[in-house]
Here is the input.
Amino acid sequence: MKELTVDLGQRSYPIYIGKNLLSSHDLFSDIIQSSQVMIISNATVAPIYLQDLTQTLKNFEPQSYIIPD
Here is the structure.
């Protein structure tokens, strides 16, 4: 896995690049600091990845919202 940081001062955030990251519960557990998660995706990507990601995040009470392309 590779990690890049988008440097925005106090609003900086990481981007993770690698295989099977959507199924990496440990990765999300280290990052998410809430009991709830909102997944926002689009109509093209959601059918491919949403179910797997929702399963990975099941301990965080995931909700999802799909936007048009």
User: Anything to note?
Assistant: The chain has a mean pLDDT of 94. The longest strand covers residues 37-42.
